[in-house]
Amino acid sequence: SLVSTHNTATDAHADIREEITKLSDNKANLNEVATYITPEMYGAKGDNVNDDSAAIQAAIDAAGREAVIYLGKKVYLTSSTLVLTKNRVKFVCDGVISYTGTGAAIKMESVGYADVDIYAIQAPNGTALLMDSTDGELGQNIISIKYILASVIGVHIKGDGANGAGGHNIFYNK
Questions:
Q1: Which long-range contacts (CB under 8 A, 24 or more apart) does 19-22 make?
Q2: For the residues of 78-98, what is the DSSP string, one character each?
Q3: How does strand 36-37 pair with strand 170-172?
Q4: Span between the terminal Cα atoms of the chain, in Å
Q5: What phi, psi does 171 have (nearest 5°)?
Q6: pLDDT per residue as tens digits for the range 18-64
Q7: pLDDT at residue 12 tops 80
Q8: Across all residues in the chain, what is the average pLDDT?
Q9: Which of 17, 27, 33, 120 has its CA 20 to 30 A from that of 41?
Q10: Which residues contact 134 (CB under 8 A, 6 or more apart)?
Q11: Would you list the DSSP string of 28-43?
Q12: What single string gives the DSSP state of each residue in the chain?
């Protein structure tokens, strides 16, 4: 199980964690310091017990251009798909996204110039990552996922032929 291995994550994002610890829990201070957003600012627990879907989605929705959405070295239980629709954002997860649904754990919908760096996605009944260009283009996204446990599809790139699925999407395991 990926949940039991999340504590072995590397310290690759120590600089992000350090900057975030400078922030108070008050969301109003975000504009004063940096564009770092955590789902804990919106009520996430990261305890693998409480459903963190709404809090993580709220953090994603609050992100502006050049923002870093940071999920710490925890296990974030989600039951609904997390949808990334913003361009020029960085989504970093040093822990595990443990998805209990049957669709996609994360859906990138018509996103360009995004950087997604995830230690692990556990989606035993679904797809780990869906990149969907049905309603627009995907391109120049950098995707890094170290561990994927998914029964359906690990990564699915979907397009309708009229819109591009990007020629610049890069996937690699660290």
A1: 20/70
A2: ESS-EEE--SS-EEEEEEEEE
A3: unpaired
A4: 18
A5: -120, 135
A6: 655 555 444 454 444 448 899 999 999 999 999 999 999 999 999 88
A7: no
A8: 76
A9: 120
A10: 158, 159, 160, 163
A11: GGHHHH-SEE-GGGGT
A12: --GGGGGG---TTHHHHHHHHTS-S-GGGHHHH-SEE-GGGGT---EEEEE-HHHHHHHHHH--TT-EEEE-SSEEEESS-EEE--SS-EEEEEEEEEE-SSSEEEEEES-BS-EEEEEEEEETTSEEEEEE-TTS--BS-EEEEEEEEESS-SEEEE--SSS---S--EEE--
Q: Which amino acid is at 52?
A: D
Mark 43-66 as b/e (b = at least 16 C-beta within 10 Å). Answer: ebbbebeeebbebbbbbbebbeee
Phi-psi label, residue 50: left if phi above 0, alpha if psi -120 to 50, beta otherwise: beta
Q: Which of 10-24, 93-107, 130-144 has the highest mean pLDDT?
A: 93-107
Residue 25 tokens, joined = 């829990």
Work out the percent of the chain whose per-residue pLDDT is above 70. Answer: 64
Q: What confidence score (pLDDT) does residue 34 get?
A: 47
Q: Report the range of poorest mean pLDDT among 5-19, 38-52, 134-148.
A: 5-19
CB 39, CB 59: distance < 8 Å: yes
pTM of the model: 0.77
